[in-house]
Design goal:
The protein has 381 residues and is of the alpha/beta class. The protein is 54% helix and 10% strand. The chain contains 17 helices and eight strands. One of its GO terms (cellular component) is nucleus.
């Protein structure tokens, strides 16, 4: 348990004792003077910045930058005294960072249970709508080439546009829907499908497929695959590989769960010689970027490791908010990934049959993989 959780639990015990004496409405009336935001956060920002980071996953300076971006969208107008944007944002970050129950959030901040729910969902929606265009827009041709160059510098894998992976996000099962969301690990979930660059920045995300989904496949029917197939993602055209006359397409790397296609390279499932082993190792080095990105995401936003207590559609808002917050922090902090990797733990991986029922490949894709394998084993790399 984080130090901030211990501090907050002590405050909660005092609040609950006070609630028993005075009742809900009286407790909520004391929010401005005795709620956690007023009584605790102001102290943290002035006297203990490390605890502020532990509580919200943001430095106070980062928090103010984020607030400046979303403040106008979070401001509410009513005859009653509305909760200010700064507090609405902090409540949401705190919920995402710790995954505490809504009732705990309600008591801690001295707000009604439905008010807490409304604030969190509204703020998550705002975070996605405002930050997506800044921190998760589809890369341009030049930006794709820079991503490829970064992968080449780090992994010596040419023309790689990103790593793709899928994970289960635990949710509370909606009524009469257990068969849809119960996955083969025996918990209810929605599936997060994502791609990232070599710096662990997410470049694409798809959330919400049923946890039990296999027929038809998650990736097979995803918008991402459609974008790859119809070339609407502005990916570069095929070019010469570095130091070579071989013209080769740009592609994403994935594990064996995915199809082998012109723009998706995956490992050899049966290794027959040393060259294929070298190919698999090089591909794995690039593919681990998405596994690490998921680990960084869940390390910082522990709500993703609990059963999200919203409907699947609202759980999707929560997941999308954590994705853009992750990208926001990565973009502004060169030490972000170094610090977080020390304490990463992954979401449960999606098994092969959960992503695709048929991952067969065509002959063209197999030929391309063989050409790339030969290149990676040559003196040109």
């Amino acid at each position: 348990m984080d130090d901030i959780d211990v501090l907050e639990d002590l405050l909660l015990l005092k609040m609950i004792a006070s609630r028993q004496r005075r009742g809900n409405q009286e407790i909520f009336k004391t929010r401005k003077n005795h709620g956690f935001y007023s009584s605790g956060v102001n102290v943290l920002t002035k006297n203990n910045p490390e605890l502020f980071i532990e509580s919200s996953r943001f430095t106070y300076e980062q928090f103010k930058v984020l607030l400046n971006l979303v403040e106008s969208y979070l401001r509410k107008y009513s005859r009653r005294n509305p909760i200010e944007p700064e507090q609405r944002l902090y409540i949401t970050l705190h919920f995402l960072a710790h995954g505490r129950a809504l009732r705990v959030i309600s008591m801690k901040f001295r707000i009604g249970l439905e008010t807490a729910r409304s604030i969190i969902l509204d703020t998550c929606d705002v975070l996605w709508r405002v930050l997506e265009s800044r921190y998760m827009s589809t890369p341009s041709d030049a930006e794709w080439k820079q991503i490829s160059e970064d992968f080449w510098n780090v992994t010596k894998l040419p023309h790689c546009l990103g790593a793709i992976g899928g994970k289960h996000v635990p949710i509370n099962c909606p009524p009469n829907s257990r068969s849809k969301y119960l996955n083969n690990k025996q918990f209810n979930s929605v599936i997060l499908l994502a791609a990232c660059d070599s710096n662990y920045t997410f470049t694409f995300v798809d959330v919400g497929s049923y946890g039990n989904q296999s027929d038809g496949g998650v990736f097979k029917t995803s918008q991402f695959r459609n974008m790859i197939s119809d070339k609407s993602m502005d990916a570069p055209n095929a070019e010469n590989l570095p130091n070579s006359d071989l013209v080769f397409p740009y592609y994403f790397v994935a594990d064996v769960a995915f199809p082998l296609e012109r723009n998706i390279m995956k490992p050899y499932e049966t290794v027959t010689d040393v060259s294929e082993e070298v190919f698999n190792q090089r591909l794995c080095s690039a593919r681990m970027r998405i596994e690490t990105a998921f680990g960084l995401l869940t390390s910082r936003w522990k709500v993703l490791s609990t059963s999200i207590s919203f409907s699947p559609e609202n759980a999707k808002k929560v997941v999308l908010a954590t994705i853009v917050l992750h990208n926001f922090l990565v973009s502004g902090n060169v030490n972000y990934t170094t610090l977080e990797k020390r304490n990463t733990h992954n979401l449960t991986s999606v098994n092969s049959h959960d992503l695709l029922t048929a991952n067969t490949s065509n002959q063209l894709a197999r030929n391309l993989r063989n050409e790339l394998c030969e290149y990676l084993n040559s003196s040109l790399v």
